[in-house]
Write a structure and sequence with these properties.
The chain is an all-alpha fold. It is 57% helix and 0% strand. Helix 1 (5-22) packs antiparallel against helix 2, helix 6 packs across helix 9 and helix 6 (121-150) crosses helix 11.
């Protein structure tokens, strides 16, 4: 790297200070001549005594600090040997190996710790209702599939054909007989206009009989909450009032027996720790 004129003048001033010092001038006198402080003159002289150059040496790297012997050239620069280059290559390779090992370790996923907690009443209610919903859906799909299989395909009725060969003399009689016995095709047994309405499951508000409506998710949740909080006596009349009369007290009791059976079945076949 080429030196600028300002660097050259500063370097010349430092060597001037060294020459004046060797000629016997004091630090105070040298500072007055160079226009510097006594502290700056003292640092220049110390650098010259240590390194042989009045310029401030660069901060040594850790590699230089580890060396037992350090060599400088005539300009006060560090002298690098071929051994230093080999050590640099080894350090680079070692650093790359450490980086690759850290990347591999970071890619290995650590198993997440298991969350152990007690099952609450809300968890039990949600699990039972979910199992009942799945059972109802499977039963509904099975019934709809059976209905589609058992339903006969409609075919238009056609008049019977006489496959027997007849003579020309009796053709007029056969035409008259077939005309008298011909019946028009009967209408189809089932209308094919709107099949979506037939296959659509009945909704909550399609029921016309009060107290015998379809059980909904909210109804099951209210029933389970009522039973689990009022186990003594059932209090089915209170539940009928809470459900606004959509289900009678007797059907609430029957529905509870149905849910209870599924609850016990689910608890016996499922590990509670997986909820």
């Amino acid at each position: 790297m080429a030196k600028t004129p300002s660097n050259d003048s500063s370097e010349a001033k430092r060597w001037l200070i060294i020459g004046a010092y060797k000629a016997g001038a004091t630090e105070k006198h040298i500072a007055r001549i160079a226009g510097l402080s006594k502290v700056a003159v003292r640092h220049i002289l110390l650098n010259y005594r240590r390194t042989g150059s009045p310029s401030l040496p660069k901060k040594p790297s850790p590699k230089v600090k580890r060396k037992p012997i350090v060599e400088y050239d005539e300009n006060g620069e560090l002298v690098e040997s071929s051994d230093d280059n080999e050590e640099d290559e080894e350090e680079i390779k070692k650093r790359e190996r450490n980086t690759n090992r850290k990347n591999v370790e970071s890619m290995v996923k650590k198993p997440s710790p298991k969350i152990n907690r007690q099952v609450t009443a809300k968890d039990l209610i949600a699990y039972v209702v979910d199992q009942v919903r799945k059972t109802d859906q499977e039963q509904g799909k099975a019934s709809s599939t059976n209905e589609n299989v058992d339903k006969p395909l409609w075919r238009p009725l056609t008049p019977p054909r006489d496959r027997r060969t007849s003579s020309p003399s009796t053709s007029s009689n056969a035409v008259g007989a077939s005309t008298s016995t011909y019946l028009p095709p009967s209408p189809p047994l089932h209308a094919h206009g709107d099949t979506s309405k037939q296959n659509r499951p009945p909704g909550k508000y399609d029921q016309t009989i009060r107290g015998y409506e379809v059980w909904t998710h909210e109804d099951d949740m209210a029933l389970l909450d009522h039973v689990l909080t009022h186990l003594q006596g059932g209090r089915w009349r209170d539940l009928e009032t809470k459900l606004e009369g959509r289900h009678s007290a007797r059907l609430c009791s029957d529905r509870w027996q149905f849910l209870r059976k599924h609850m016990l079945k689910g608890l016996s076949s499922t590990n509670p720790t997986s909820w």
